[in-house]
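A quick aside before the break. I want you to see a complete sequence-to-structure record at least once, exactly as it would be stored in a machine-readable document. Don't worry about memorizing anything.
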Amino acid sequence: MSEISSLTGSPSTEQIVGQANQNLGKEDFLRLLTVQLRYQDPLNPMENTEFIAQMAQFSSLEQLQNMNQNLEQNLGSEQQLQTAFQNNLATSLVGRTVEIPTVEVDWDGENATQIGYRLDEGASSAKLQILDAGGRLVREFDLNSGASRGEISWDGVSRFDSDVPEGAYRVLVLAQDYAGGRVYAEALKQVEVEAVRYDAKGATIWAGGQELSMDDLSGVVADN
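That is the input. The structure line, written in tokens, reads:
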């Protein structure tokens, strides 16, 4: 065997594999198979079953590579389509009023403040609390736990029926299920979308004095 290899100048298997690309492609596979057939041992030729098995591997490899290329192209097109859709949607929100999660509510001392809320499914009881800067309870509202969304109006009156000073107050929405477990809930405030900017990450919305992404929006308020 060693004499035949030296006479023909046949490269060793290690040499063939070493020359192949680290990521074996269909061209590399076909080249490797051709070299293998060319320099096979005439005293021990490749059997038909072995040859057919290798050709089947080559065919499978080619199909998998083609499927992978098609998948990558489809994923890229889908991502571009999704980005374009989100950018167009963000642009259409300029001048519109949207709802965003909040932990703060402003009381101007005169006009009633509207506070929205959202509850996940399964809530059996829910309440909205307004706290002062020291964390003390100012006012508490019982909410309709059967509604996923709602809104309350606060006129700046405390739970002791006294007027509170104007300023920013903390707001919490607490909800429980029948077993006493916590149900996700959040307070919402309405802000107007002033501008939309675009970068490599997508659309950034400027509203209520802060930068927001599309994921930060909880809803869009219908026009009157």
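Two observations worth writing down. Residues 1-14, 16-23 have pLDDT under 50 and may be disordered. Residues 2-71 form one domain. We'll return to this after the break.
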